[in-house]
Specification:
By secondary structure, this protein is mainly beta. The chain has a single domain, classed as Beta Barrel (OB fold (Dihydrolipoamide Acetyltransferase, E2P)). The chain is built from two helices and six strands; from the N terminus they run E-E-E-E-H-E-E-H. It has helices at residues 59-68, 121-128; strands at residues 7-13, 18-21, 27-40, 46-58, 74-87, 93-106. It has a five-stranded mixed barrel. The two termini are 38 Å apart.
């Protein structure tokens, strides 16, 4: 049976991505994402727990990260766990765990110099991003001048009320 190796994270960048352009033409971006959980402990006190995740992106995703990601950016990533093993200078075996990203969606708006929050950025970004699967892309709002037929608002069907079990059914149990 085949295994599954999939990681999904939503978090914030701890620093600007480190970008390297390799001799073969590949680009790699590395950065850390923080995810934070809050819960109440046994004493009823609210506790925040932050985990840091090492992220790695290659080629097109790395170029997008270079252009759009900055310290504090909120991002949704999907990827696979990768374990790296090596010997340090003293000959001690070391390992680290990375998430190699296969899909990324920018969540927060792009900060602008004029103080605007960049509303609408995600929709525009997803359409032009070839790395985002079609099922995750959102349609951009049509310009007001576009001649589109008006559609009536569709009403959702109302659920049938549950009347309970009156005991008159034909079920054998």
């Amino acid at each position: 049976m085949a295994g599954v190796n999939k990681v999904i994270l939503i978090g914030n960048l701890g620093a600007d991505p480190e970008i390297r352009h390799l001799d073969g033409g590949s680009t790699i971006a590395r950065f850390n994402i923080a995810t934070t959980e809050t819960y109440n402990n046994k004493s009823g006190e609210r506790v925040e727990q932050t985990e840091w995740h090492r992220i790695e992106m290659w080629d097109n995703l790395a170029k997008i990260a270079e252009q759009y990601l900055k310290k504090g950016s909120q991002v949704y990533v999907e990827g696979k766990l990768r374990t790296e093993a090596w010997k340090d200078k003293e000959g001690v075996d070391r390992t680290t765990l990375r998430i190699r990203v296969t899909n990324m969606t920018l969540i927060g708006g792009r900060p602008n110099n004029d103080g605007n929050d960049g509303s609408g950025y995600e929709t525009q970004r997803q359409q032009s991003d070839p790395a985002t699967p079609p099922q995750q892309r959102q349609a951009a709002p049509a310009p007001a001048s576009a001649a589109a037929p008006k559609q009536q608002a569709r009403r959702e069907p109302e659920p049938t009320p549950f009347e309970g079990n009156s005991g008159d059914d034909d079920l054998p149990f």
